[in-house]
Each structure stands twice: as structure tokens, then as C-alpha cells.
């Protein structure tokens, strides 16, 4: 009897990580691509859902960044051929720019 109860408890423990993994997978969002080329973000305006990720890829020669105007997030320097990612967990409107070339601007709307 005791052994049986113990086995049930062990089975419960074994299933817990699977339940957690399932919950995480259900929330996994889409990854949206933004290209950086000719000193511009393309697309410059993007509407995504909370939980989604934006991936910026630098297709040009100069290094760039995507920095939130409100300083809530930034990609760090993205060199030629490299990418930077940000996951947006909450709804909001984010204007961003390149810290090296402030005339480069974009907007992410998280719904
Ligand atoms: Cu730039």
C-alpha cells in the first residue's frame, strides 16, 4: 500500500516537467523578420502579438542597432550578416531607431 502511494507520487513528479513544457510551447509566439539594408528597416512598421519575437537581420555593410525610444529594449550592435532578436511579452507601441544612424526609424505595435 505504501509502495503504491509512493509510486503514484513518483509518477506525478515525472509528469510535472512535461506539463510545464506543454504550457511553454502553447505560448510560443511567431518570429517576425525585419531586414536592415540601405540604412532603413524593412518593414519599418510591424504589428505583432504579445509573445512574438522580432528578428532584425543586417543585410548591409555598416553596423546597426534597433533601440527602443523608451529604453525598454535594444538589440545591441548588429554587424553585417548578423541578427538581433527581441521578444515582446506585453502589448504596447514601440518606436525604435538605430543608435549609430538616428534617422533610421521603425515601429513595433504589440497587440
Ligand atoms: Cu544604423
Describe, in plain words, how this protein is organized in 3D.
This protein is of the alpha/beta class and 111 residues long. The chain is globular and about 35 Å long. It has one helix at 2-27; strands at 31-37, 40-42, 45-48, 53-58, 67-68, 83-87, 92-97, 105-110. It has a four-stranded mixed sheet with strand order 2-1-4-6, with no helix packed on it. Strands 3-8-7-5 form a four-stranded mixed sheet, with no helix packed on it. It has one domain (31-110): Sandwich (Immunoglobulin-like), CATH 2.60.40. The longest helix has 26 residues, at 2-27. The structure holds copper (II) ion (CU). The site of copper (II) ion (CU) has 5 residues, from loops.
Outline of this structure?
By secondary structure, the protein is of the alpha/beta class.
The radius of gyration over CA amounts to: 21 Å
Secondary-structure element sequence?
Answer: HEEEEEEEE
Task: Give helix % range.
Answer: 10-25%
CATH class: Mainly Beta
Q: Which residues form runs of ≥5 with pLDDT under 50? A: 9-13, 15-25
Number of helices: 1
Mean pLDDT: 85
CATH third-level topology:
Immunoglobulin-like
Approximate strand percentage: 35-45%
Amino acid at each position: 500500500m505504501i509502495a503504491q502511494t509512493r509510486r503514484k507520487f513518483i509518477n506525478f513528479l515525472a509528469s510535472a516537467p512535461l506539463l510545464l513544457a506543454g504550457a511553454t510551447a502553447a505560448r510560443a509566439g511567431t518570429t517576425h523578420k525585419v531586414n536592415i539594408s540601405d540604412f532603413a528597416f524593412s518593414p519599418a512598421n510591424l504589428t505583432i502579438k504579445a509573445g512574438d519575437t522580432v528578428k532584425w537581420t543586417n543585410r548591409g555593410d555598416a553596423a546597426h542597432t534597433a533601440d527602443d525610444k523608451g529604453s525598454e529594449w535594444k538589440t545591441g550592435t548588429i554587424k553585417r550578416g548578423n541578427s538581433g532578436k527581441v521578444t515582446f511579452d506585453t502589448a504596447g507601441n514601440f518606436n525604435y531607431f538605430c543608435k549609430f544612424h538616428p534617422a533610421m526609424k521603425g515601429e513595433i505595435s504589440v497587440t
